[in-house]
């Protein structure tokens, strides 16, 4: 890894911790860990470089930039079909991971610095691990644009806006589930990526998600997003 803290800095940190037990002073000496940039697999792409393990699994090398400050990493990997998340520790800025073929994944990298209690997560990326038999790809799950997850809304009328990436670029419809319940009911079916002029009650928590369907009847469900009204 490039740009590791110097030995003198590390020794100074140990002295600070040993004498004062104050981790806040560590950041004054060396700074908090820094975010990395994801390199491969590329966002919204198809990973074709995996080494076949068997008919179902291939091994893929994940790469990211070295952290300017940090000495270890954790890869967070989510299977977008099952929503199962797995973590992989690494001391280098790359790691080989076995993946199911023909499966969409989301990944990010968390940077740690052992001498502090802090960490920072990279942006996320989504990709498909390729498979020979695939002729049509399921759309990636929709991302909320507005209201974004956890947002506080200050108007009585809102617009639901989302974004979907599809490798085949053949999404034909969206089913939008929306309401004040954690399991919202179907609100609208549309071919657009927004719904305007929705009336909302004050001091209410709302939930919504999107099911995207393509021309081959493949569909994906987004995460459930939530927002709170206060106007």
Sum up the structure in keywords.
231 residues; mainly beta; Immunoglobulin-like; six-stranded mixed β-sheet; 46% strand; flat; FN3_sf; Fibronectin type-III domain-containing protein; Ig-like_fold
Description:
InterPro entries: FN3_sf (IPR036116), Ig-like_fold (IPR013783). This is Fibronectin type-III domain-containing protein. The protein has 231 residues and is mainly beta. The protein folds into 2 domains: 32-129, Immunoglobulin-like; 143-229, Immunoglobulin-like (Sandwich), CATH 2.60.40. Helix content is 9%, strand content 46%. It is built from 2 helices and 19 strands. The strands form 4 sheets. Strands 2, 5, 6, 8, 9 and 10 form a 6-stranded mixed β-sheet that branches. Strands 12, 14, 15, 17, 18 and 19 form a 6-stranded mixed β-sheet that branches. The longest helix is centred in the first third of the chain and has 14 residues, at 7-20. It starts with 6 loop residues before the first helix and ends with a strand. Residues 1-21 have low confidence and may be disordered.
Describe the protein's topology.
Layout: H1 7-20, H2 24-29, E1 38-40, E2 45-47, E3 51-52, E4 57-64, E5 72-79, E6 85-90, E7 94-100, E8 103-112, E9 119-121, E10 125-129, E11 143-146, E12 151-153, E13 157-163, E14 171-179, E15 186-190, E16 194-199, E17 205-214, E18 219-221, E19 225-229
Parallel strand pairs: 2-10, 12-19
Antiparallel strand pairs: 1-4, 3-4, 4-7, 5-6, 5-8, 8-9, 8-10, 11-13, 13-16, 14-15, 14-17, 17-18, 17-19
């Amino acid at each position: 890894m490039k740009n590791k803290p110097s030995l003198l800095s590390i020794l100074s940190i140990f002295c600070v911790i040993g004498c004062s037990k104050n981790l806040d002073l560590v950041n004054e000496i060396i700074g908090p860990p820094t975010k990395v940039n994801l390199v491969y697999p590329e966002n919204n792409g198809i990973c074709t470089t995996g080494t076949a393990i068997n008919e179902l699994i291939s091994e893929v090398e994940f790469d990211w930039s070295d952290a300017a400050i940090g000495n270890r990493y954790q890869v967070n990997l989510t299977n977008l079909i099952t929503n199962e998340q797995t973590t992989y520790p690494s001391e280098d800025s790359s790691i080989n991971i076995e993946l199911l073929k023909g499966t969409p994944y989301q990944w990010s990298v968390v940077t740690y610095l052992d001498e502090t209690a802090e960490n920072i997560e990279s942006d996320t990326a989504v990709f498909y691990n390729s498979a020979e038999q695939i002729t049509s790809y399921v759309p990636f799950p929709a991302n909320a644009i507005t209201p974004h997850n956890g947002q506080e809304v200050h108007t009585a009328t809102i617009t639901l806006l989302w974004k979907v990436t599809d490798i085949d670029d053949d999404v034909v419809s969206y089913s939008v589930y929306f309401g004040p319940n954690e399991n919202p009911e179907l609100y609208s079916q549309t071919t657009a990526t927004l719904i305007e002029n929705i009336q909302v009650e004050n001091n209410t928590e709302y939930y919504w998600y999107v099911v995207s369907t393509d021309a081959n009847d493949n569909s994906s469900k987004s995460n459930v997003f939530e927002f709170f009204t206060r106007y």
